[in-house]
Amino acid sequence: MTQSRHRRAGMVRSHTATGGDLTPARQGLDAATLLLADAGQPVTGLAAQPRRVMELCLPGVLSVSEVAAHLHLPGPVVRVIVSRLLDSGHLSARAPFVPTASSPHSAEVLRKVLVALEKL
Amino acid sequence: MPARAQSVKVLVLGPFAVGKTTFVRTVSEIRPLSTEERMTRAGELVDELDELSEKDTTTVAMDFGRLTLSEEIVLYLFGAPGQPRFHGMVRSLMQGALGGLVLVDTRRIADSFDAIDLLEEARLPYTVAVNHFSGSPRYSDAHLRDSLSMDDEQPLVSLDAREIGSAKHGLIALVRHILYRPRHLEHTP
Ligand SMILES: Nc1nc2c(ncn2[C@@H]2O[C@H](COP(=O)(O)OP(=O)(O)OP(=O)(O)O)[C@@H](O)[C@H]2O)c(=O)[nH]1
Ligand SMILES: [Mg+2]
């Protein structure tokens, strides 16, 4: 079934095209990781690209992907820059979603979700 | 948020301007972090999405929303853009998600293929939701299913992302699908 959709769209499956991401520069740092700049850290000593990353992140939270999009830089490059800024304390990182310990996909939880949604 | 609450996550995907931000905004109990708003307190992102800054207008591609369904369950909504440069982000967001909602504009059905492919690649269950805009053609379900190469078992709904009473049906269809879908559509993550 996906076959026809791909043919119609004239697309290559994206994961084949990218061949998978490069190894993240730092454990736990991925495209959806949220970044927060520490306004107290000096940016004067930074090179141009890390400085631009800091300027982007200072007004608020951005994900690694969004930083990459703003700077027109490839994700892996941004991750390396961000890793260094994390190491130096200029940035801090936060996962966008923290899963609960127990499986959220149990039928019991799903039924509760359904009941609650229907009551909305 | 209650200390022992379960977090469940649903992704809202689809092409540019299809209504992702609108959907997340409508369903969320908080003003989601989105294109028009950037929050200044990342440290509290998950628990206090309501603490948003209204000052900043830099474009943000992701939408975050939260809906407390009960004392025990909190639903997180993540709207993510369709452009290939964000695929890495979407793949990361898909980890641990319940499933996805794919928004479709009937004037450009093919633009939603990408989101469907990403979800299938991740083996996540999903629901296709048609957002009707003024002037967008109304096709039969059969036509839509054919255009989208969808199985009959795959849920297909129409909704207005601006109305909670309508938008919630997209989520309901998704959860029903996960609970009751035929065995052959079941994926083991
Ligand atoms: N008629 C109608 N208009 C809608 C619906 N959902 C969204 N819109 C409108 O469509 C426009 C785009 O909606 P957004 O929610 O910004 O779309 P988006 O998918 O977040 O767009 P990007 O983030 O730019 O990719 C807005 O003007 C919405 O008010 C819908 O269900 N019906
Ligand atoms: Mg948007």
TrEMBL record, chain A:
<protein>
    <submittedName>
        <fullName>Uncharacterized protein DUF742</fullName>
    </submittedName>
</protein>
<feature type="compositionally biased region" description="Basic residues">
    <location>
        <begin position="1"/>
        <end position="10"/>
    </location>
</feature>
<dbReference type="InterPro" id="IPR007995">
    <property type="entry name" value="DUF742"/>
</dbReference>
<feature type="region of interest" description="Disordered">
    <location>
        <begin position="1"/>
        <end position="25"/>
    </location>
</feature>
<dbReference type="Pfam" id="PF05331">
    <property type="entry name" value="DUF742"/>
</dbReference>
Automatic annotation (TrEMBL), chain B:
<dbReference type="InterPro" id="IPR004130">
    <property type="entry name" value="Gpn"/>
</dbReference>
<comment type="similarity">
    <text>Belongs to the GPN-loop GTPase family.</text>
</comment>
<keyword id="KW-0675">Receptor</keyword>
<keyword id="KW-0342">GTP-binding</keyword>
<keyword id="KW-0378">Hydrolase</keyword>
<protein>
    <submittedName>
        <fullName>Signal recognition particle receptor subunit beta</fullName>
    </submittedName>
</protein>
<dbReference type="InterPro" id="IPR027417">
    <property type="entry name" value="P-loop_NTPase"/>
</dbReference>
<keyword id="KW-0547">Nucleotide-binding</keyword>
<dbReference type="Pfam" id="PF03029">
    <property type="entry name" value="ATP_bind_1"/>
</dbReference>
<dbReference type="GO" id="GO:0016787">
    <property type="term" value="F:hydrolase activity"/>
</dbReference>
<dbReference type="InterPro" id="IPR052705">
    <property type="entry name" value="Gliding_Motility_GTPase"/>
</dbReference>
<dbReference type="GO" id="GO:0005525">
    <property type="term" value="F:GTP binding"/>
</dbReference>
